[in-house]
Structure formats: C-alpha cells, structure tokens
Amino acid sequence: MNDDVQRLPVVTDQDVVRVRQLVRTVAVAVKLSLVDQTKLVTAASELARNTLVYGGGGEAEVSRVHNDRRAGIRIVFADQGPGIADLDLALTDGYTTGGGLGLGLSGARRLVDEFEIDTEPGKGTTITVVKWCR
Amino acid sequence: MERVPVLKIGEILLVSIQIDMEDQVALQLQEDLAERIVATGVRGVIIDISALDIVDSFVGRTLATIASVSRVLDAETVVVGMRPAVAITLVELGLSLPGIRTALNVDLGIAMLARQDEDIDLLGDEDDTDQVAEPTP
Amino acid sequence: MPLSPDEASRFAVLLESNAESLAARWSELAGAGLRGRLSGAELLRQTRDLRSAFQQALAGGASDVNDEAAAELRAQLSELSSHRARQGFSATETAISVFALKEATLHVLGDAEDAATLRDYVAFSAFVDRAALFTFDSYVRVREALISDQAEQLLELSTPVVKLWEGVVAVPLVGTLDSARAQVVMERLLQTLVDTGSPYAIIDITGVPAVDTQVAQHILKTVVAARLMGADCIISGIRPQIAQTIVALGIEFGDIATKASLADALRYVLGKTGKRPVR
Known about the structure:
The complex is a heterotrimer of chains A (about 130), B (about 140) and C (about 280).
Chain A: E1 2-10, H1 13-29, H2 34-53, E2 58-66, E3 71-79, H3 87-90, H4 104-111, E4 114-120, E5 124-132
Antiparallel strand pairs in A: 1-2, 2-3, 3-5, 4-5
Helix pairs in contact in A: 1-2, 2-4
Chain B: E1 6-9, E2 12-16, H1 23-40, E3 44-48, H2 57-72, E4 76-80, H3 84-93, E5 101-103, H4 106-123, H5 125-129
Parallel strand pairs in B: 2-3, 3-4, 4-5
Antiparallel strand pairs in B: 1-2
Helix pairs in contact in B: 1-2
Chain C: H1 5-17, H2 19-34, H3 40-59, H4 71-87, H5 91-109, H6 115-158, E1 162-165, E2 168-174, H7 179-196, E3 200-207, H8 213-229, E4 232-236, H9 240-248, E5 257-259, H10 262-273
Parallel strand pairs in C: 2-3, 3-4, 4-5
Antiparallel strand pairs in C: 1-2
C-alpha cells in the first residue's frame, strides 16, 4: 500500500540536489527522527549520484509506504546504463570505478533499513531502498 | 551556478557553506580556495559546515582534498560546526575523513589554528627550511 | 445477536424504572471483586453514571456499543478504564465492573419465566459483553500509553549529560544499556558537545553491569562521531568483567583513551588542556 508517488529525473547535478530536497521533505512528513532523516537523505544523495555518474542518468521515485505497524519511505533509483557486472565487488567498501571513495553503494546500504539491487549488464540498474520510522 | 564566498579575516580564510551544494559548486570552492590561499598567503583556513544538514561522500572527499591541497600550500584547514546527526551518519557511511582537523565551532577552530602558529614560532627558522609537509596523524 | 430497537427501548425503560435498586445492586456486585480498594460511595457514583449512560444509549436505539447513539456510553467506559488503569486495577477487575451489570439486571428482571424475556435478556447480555470488551480494549490502550510514557521518563531520568568543568562534559551511564537507550544517550551527548562548545567528553560506565557487542559498537561509533565533530571522548569506569568481555568479544578500542575512574579521566583531560584542578 502506498500513496502520492513523486518522480524526479536524475540527469544533471542540480537534479541530485532536487532529489535530496524531496527526500528531506518526505522524511520530515513521515516523522523520521533527525538522525534517520540525515541518514536517508545522505543515502539518497549517494545513490542519485551513482545513477547520474555510472548509470548515465535515470529517474528517482519517492513514495510513502506503510506496513501494519509503521510508516516509511521508499526510494527507487532506475537507470538504463551499463549495469553492474560484479555486484559483490561493487558492494565492497572502497571499491570504485569512478574515482570516488567507493563508499556510495556499500555506505548507502548501511544507512537504510531495506536495500534491494536489480542489475543486468547492458540493461541498467534499479536500486530500491526503504527506511522505516522507529 | 552559485558560488560559496571565501572571506579573509585577519590571517585566516573563512568559508561558511550556507547552501545545499551541487557537486560542481563544491569543486569550484576547492579551486577558489587554493587560489585565495596563494594570493593572500594565509596560514589557516576555516570551513564552517554548521548549516549543512548532510555531508555525503562527495562533499566529504572534497573537504579532504581541500585540506590536503591547502597543506601543500602551507595552510592548515579546520572544518568546524559539523552537526551531530551528520557525524553519526558519516560514521555509519564509513567515512572517517582522515587528515581533516575538526573543531566544534568557529571560535575553537580559530584557537586551534592559533595554537599551531605558536608551535611553529617556537620551532623558529628550522621549521622554515623543512619543505616537506608534515604527515597527517 | 444484535439488540433490536424494540428490545433496546424495553431495556431503556427497565434501567430507568429500576434506576436506584439497579445501581445499588450493581455497585455491590462490582465492589465484591475489588476487595474494598474503592469506596462504596465512589463505586455507587460510577455505576450511577454508567447506568444512565447505558440507558441513554439504549433509549437512543443503540444496537451495538459502537453505534452513534452509544457515544456517551463509550466516553464513560473509556473514562472508567483510564481511571482504573491509573489506579492499578487489573484488566479483569475493570471488565468485571461492567459485566456485573448483567447480574444486576437479572436481579431487577425478577422471576419472569417467559421465552420473550429470555430472548431479550440474551440480546442485552451480548450488548453488555461488547461494552465490557470495549472497556478491556481501552484499558489496554491506557496501560500501553502509561508504559511507553514511563519508559520515556526513565530514559530522561537515567541519561543526564552534565558539565563537569569548563569545556568538559560527562555522561555517567547507569543501568543496563540496550541499543535504543545507547543511541539516545549518544545523540544527546553529541548535541551537548555542540550546545556547550565542550571539546572533551567523558563517558563513565561504572554503573553499567554488562556490555554486549552492540552497546560497545554504539559507544565506539559515538567516540568516532565526536572526533569527526572535533571533540575527544574518554571512557572511564570500565570494570574488570567488562574489560574481559570487551577483549573476549574482540572489540577494538583502538586509540580511544580509557581511564579507571571518572576522577582519573577528569585529571587526564585537565592535564591536556593545561588546567590544573585546585586541591
């Protein structure tokens, strides 16, 4: 069950900033704690940049979700880029192909409650993260 | 594109980041700072991030690069005002920002730079002949 | 079997015409289970209020306790459960107070032996059952709210962050640290560092009986977070068993300063800042 899904393109630097701001707004609306807001926005920033830099641009989809006990936020990042050939390696701390610190994927995973990655070489990558209110 | 202003106050360059920076803005700041350090000959840089509600790995890396570059240019960088939630998130992210000196606020940052200047004065001329930048602890 | 409008109005009349004897009998029955912890007068007042709420609901044609006409009754029942919950009565004792209406009603029905009265009574009894279940539910809700309030108060009470010296704050941790509490303490400590501009924090764990991996991780992360913000943490009061656990669990305290007592930690910090405590 989810409501008011919001979509944003992730094609430029400014889009990354817009994704951060949207995620922050929704995180405040579902009453995540300040630390959890910060963690989620940071994770969104890492993943949006990945979509832009490695995926060649794509889309972010932010929605509020509920299960029987809690409210939360789900963010889906999707691109039609080259995909990730070795997922285990990509999720290793410090591994990078883009000259970054290699903490984007692995770090973002530690900042959220649920992390799902769906990728196929040549087809693109879709990453879904969820953060629940405590 | 917005630009982060760099102020010179006494012997210190003060940068207060007040906006949610695009990556390009962060890179521009890195360039601007290097130029201003050389142009002004200051020995200390203070970067106030108390207005930032997040620091991701890109901004973290930019701060680390700024610190390294300014050290090569013989200026010490202190990052001040990091919010608790930001610090907790950075720890979780796995970003420990090695090589960056930090202080709780601008005042403490200035005091930290002043102490370092005293140390250098105590060492006298010997220090000036030493061209190699001190390795970070 | 829901109460029909006819049955409801018949019972409304019954409750009205026997108002006093019913309330008296009801409070007597309810009082039996409370073993004198509520005064007779208090109980009688409560049953009188409840009786008139029941009567009002039935006169309004309520067939179930969730009906519009029973709004006042629900309010009365919620108030009853909230009072009882706060006074420490059990859920059963509270529900019995409502169930007792059935026996009291039987009492005023007298010796009627016809099937129609029996049918009426069964329907009415089901109505009272649902009212009692409603009471039970709201009792549980009140208790849950009480428990979570108390947990929060306990958290407030047990996690003070105190200023020890100019530029030095301390958190004396007392009691068992679970993950949630450790997180709250640590966030508060970091915020206090900012608010007071203190570059030193002492985390004293003298009063902590045990440390598990998760709690140790929280403390370590806090120390690292504080360092990122430009403050130094010292851990004091590590008891021998805890030191053993820490080593056994393979937790690296690395270059984090540890001192035997809070006093040692303070002396260490003052030494670093160049201040000397005056003896």
